[in-house]
UniProtKB/TrEMBL annotation:
The lineage of its organism: Bacteria, Pseudomonadati, Pseudomonadota, Alphaproteobacteria, Rhodobacterales. It comes from Meinhardsimonia xiamenensis. This is Amino acid/amide ABC transporter ATP-binding protein 1, HAAT family. One of its GO terms (molecular function) is ATP binding. SMART domains: AAA (SM00382). Keywords: ATP-binding, Nucleotide-binding, Transport. CDD domains: ABC_Mj1267_LivG_branched (cd03219). Pfam families: ABC_tran, BCA_ABC_TP_C.
Length: 272
């Protein structure tokens, strides 16, 4: 299990624990295309970990491997000290890993509240048959699920749109509802695929604040892909840099900013 001796405290007082997920030597191929090539890194408990890199670098593929949508040909994923067997996305979700998508994946015709309730599905134990014979248990479960959802709605400040169909919301709020649905699952590890994409400056500031607050208040470990370098460098404890499917850098924002391979491939600052 996690090694408590590895706990460190950040400058802003957050606790970063031992390794929560260890990604070892992952290779993922689509026919002749190598999307990820022998890539390893870890995610520590309580940290905000970013994955960055140019278009086509393999970032989304990596998130899809972690969340069970893609199955790598080589490599291992260790979660909470145990090697993970090949898993389907719903099994990964049940392990406490939730995600958002690059292109918002919500039910547009359903209300904000109902969309967020779908985030509780992995926690629902009472099936239809059991509900028919044991209504009390189903009711208690429904109340507990509601409580979690209400807490998330308060936390993300979306009470005023709870009954609004998602299709009628502006883009920035849809992104926030997607975050709410992922949070409703009470994940141990939250994966965010380009949480700021397409947002204006104000929406980005709001989203950054929510990401930091989620991490701080719930202690949720967060791994995110993001192209906005200002946001990445501000939010992240550590950054993995990918290029052409390979890891080319890994470290604190300052270490990555000063890594010449990263500068050459991605950040585009001239040599001295
Ligand atoms: N389902 C797929 N089938 C075939 N090739 C794929 C598939 N998914 C990704 N790829 C290929 O794998 C490589 C890595 O793509 P990926 O989407 O992971 O990159 P990315 O870093 O997330 O890029 P972006 O920043 O543009 O989202 C690309 O060459 C891409 O075309």
């Amino acid at each position: 299990m996690l090694d408590s001796s590895e706990v460190t405290v950040t400058a802003d007082g957050r606790r970063i624990g031992g390794v929560l997920m260890d990604i070892r030597n992952i290779t993922l191929r689509f026919g002749g295309v190598v999307a990820i090539r022998d890539t390893s890194f870890d995610i520590r408990e309580g940290e905000i970990r970013a994955i960055i890199g140019p278009n086509g670098a393999g970032k989304s593929s990596m998130l899809n491997v972690i969340s069970g949508f893609y199955h790598p040909q080589e490599g291992e994923i260790w979660f909470r000290g145990e090697k993970r067997p090949p898993m389907k996305p719903y099994q990964v979700a049940r392990q406490g890993i939730a995600r958002t998508f690059q292109n918002i994946a919500l039910f547009e015709g359903m209300s904000v509240l109902d969309n967020i309730m779908t985030g509780r599905l992995t926690h629902m134990k009472t099936g239809l048959a059991a509900q028919a014979i044991w209504w009390g248990r189903a009711e208690a479960e429904e109340v507990a699920n509601r409580e979690v959802v209400e807490r998330v709605i308060d936390f993300l400040e979306i009470q005023h749109i709870r009954k609004t169909p998602v299709g009628r919301l502006p883009y920035g709020l849809k992104k926030r509802v997607e975050l709410a649905r992922a949070l409703a699952a009470e994940p141990k590890l939250l994966l965010l695929d380009e949480p700021m994409a397409g947002m204006n400056v104000e929406e980005k500031e709001d989203m950054s604040r929510f990401i930091l607050d989620v991490n701080d208040e719930f202690g949720t470990t967060i791994a995110l892909i993001e192209h906005d370098m200002g946001v990445v460098m501000d939010l992240s404890d550590r950054v993995v840099v990918m290029d052409y499917g390979k890891k080319i850098g890994d470290g604190t924002p300052d270490e990555v900013r000063n890594n010449q391979d990263v500068i050459d491939a991605y950040l585009g600052v001239a040599h001295d």
